[in-house]
Fold these 4 entries.
Entry 1:
Amino acid sequence: METEKLKFIVEKSYSGLNKQKYRALLPYLKKTQRLYQKSWDKINDEFFETVEKITGFSWKHKIYFCVLSPFRIGISSWGGDKIVRTWRENPYSMRKITAHELLISHIFTILERDFKNENLTNKEKWALAEISAFAIAGLEKKMLKFWPWILEEEKYPLNHNYPELYNLQKKLKPIYQKKRNFKEFFQKAIKIIKHEKIP
């Protein structure tokens, strides 16, 4: 069975830099690209397979791309094959947020493909994707072995850049932990999200 693959890439169009600055940074972006790829390759196959087992849903794309950015910490896509990550982390610490961005893309795919009839707003989809990604990456023992150095408060963080999700995150954590399967969690989470007003 062929496993999905994440490839780290460098693209000038994503840099936001002028030619001179980009040229000066390029050798370091390329070196970081190699270091990130080497680190990710150690977990690649197991990561993609584990996520499929946890969610019960297959990945949309066979190859995903991670563009290294001079400015952005992390950007996902709405089911697309491209994510963005900062080049400023070490090759090991970058893994969890990179996985988080991939998971968001995967969850958007699930929502668009299998939960279209729920008529969620874009904000509701985004909230569900963010919280689900936090839960999968930080509450699943099978996933924690990919980043064993993280602290307890980093597993299901409540100190990120989206304070409007904190209350919802707290409500959904026990539901995620008691779920029989991911589909059941999604169904229950969607009902709660529809009744919550996300600021």
Entry 2:
Amino acid sequence: MKAAKLGLKGDSLALAAGMTPTEYRQLVLFDPIAEYAELKGRAQGEREMAEVLHTAAKEGDTKSALAILQHQHGWVAKQQLSIDVDQRISITAALEQAQSRVIDALTLDNETETIEFKEVTKKSLKAA
């Protein structure tokens, strides 16, 4: 129980208890009290360390407080900045931008030629 309280496990626990690892495994198989003693020792050790951390945190130790928050409460410091941008565009503005890009591209391709665009209206589309 004392070795489990200190956090020892497996073969180290068996050797600290004065047994070989094989003897300890057999003891646990045949005597449920041995396993209970190990579990009780672990619980006592965890409780003592939790009390130490909580006492230190209450006295102003920020590392202890942070350890409690992270490991017991799942707290994680924010590491990433999230920016959401809600942008709305109008279809007419998008079409105007697209048309200006086409004009620029045609002007670059045909620097010597002049290209004229006619304004398209609803009436001319129906007539076509």
Entry 3:
Amino acid sequence: MVRIPIYLAVAQWALLGALGVLVVIMFRQFGRLLSGSSKSGDLGPPVGSRAASLTYTRPGEHDPRQLTPGAGQPLLLAFVDPTCPACEELVRALDEMRDGGELAGLRVLLLISDPASYLQISDAFLATELEIGRPANPAGLDSYRVSGTPLLVAIDSGGVVAAAGPAVRRADVGRYTAVITQQAPVASRGDT
């Protein structure tokens, strides 16, 4: 019979206990991360607030353009990135809706934070005919509270945020367009 020295047995149980404590700590931290990222109220500007102006550049252009919400046309502002699979799905949904005439009368602007060269890695971004821009001044995005993508902000023709939050599928986009085209009486945060 093999005898294990007592100090090795104690060390083994101490390490096993420490590992258990680490697993519990990591599980709690992961839970906090998941619960924090699913709060759509933390994404996008507050509903009812005035949408801020943005300066952006289009891929391949050097002259900045000014986006001033409230110029009389409802606006869907989509914060998306070519490296984000959910963003690609949103771009495809927007393209389908545009082709089907569901976005008639709306201006749609895709804003990316990735370098413009990254557009080449995404078939959805390469195929879209929607306007794509990159914010010229990232500090200007503070009022839009973009902490993750995809984020869709629906702005009415008066420049007021009607809905904001995550969106991926065509049905999600439909809720936002309904709000700014006066098809729905209640503004939505766009919870998915």
Entry 4:
Amino acid sequence: MDPLTLLIGSVVILTFKEMNRKDYAVLTPSRDERYRNAMESCHQPEMLLEEAKLFSEYGLKAQAAMLKRRAEWRARPAELKKTHEEIYQKALTSENIPAILEIAFAFEGWTATKKASNLREHVRELQEKELEQAAREAQEAAEAAEAIETAATAREAEETGVKPKKKKSNGAASTKPFDKVDTEIPESVGEDT
């Protein structure tokens, strides 16, 4: 080949590479969709590793690393899968919130995001139960304190022979309903205008 043809071919190749390089290391919408589909739907570790290699070539190191982790997760031996499933099931029935959150964090690190999400939902439900229980206990304690106070006031009244004073109120329970207001306009007022 002559040098001019080599020069023109090199310029074309470099131009093509430069044109494709403008979105180097940019997660475009189509790349993002491909990444999400691979993470969610691909169950073959070999294909996940190929996708990881492709993303790495395009400068998307974080996505490549996650795809490699997902490939490792999918390629686990059966015994390890069984162990992970036992841990997951035990965490779903546990009430130890810090331990469940640690397990959710570990599953998230292994790219098992659905399992991590389920564990976090379980934690949220446990926290709601604890809040309801605390509110119920606070209500019961307030009622018990009021009963003790009422009994002490009654006992003091018996001992001293003085009637107990009524508690002061804000008047909300003792207010009377509004009187009906006459809204009719006398005829004489209407004629003057």
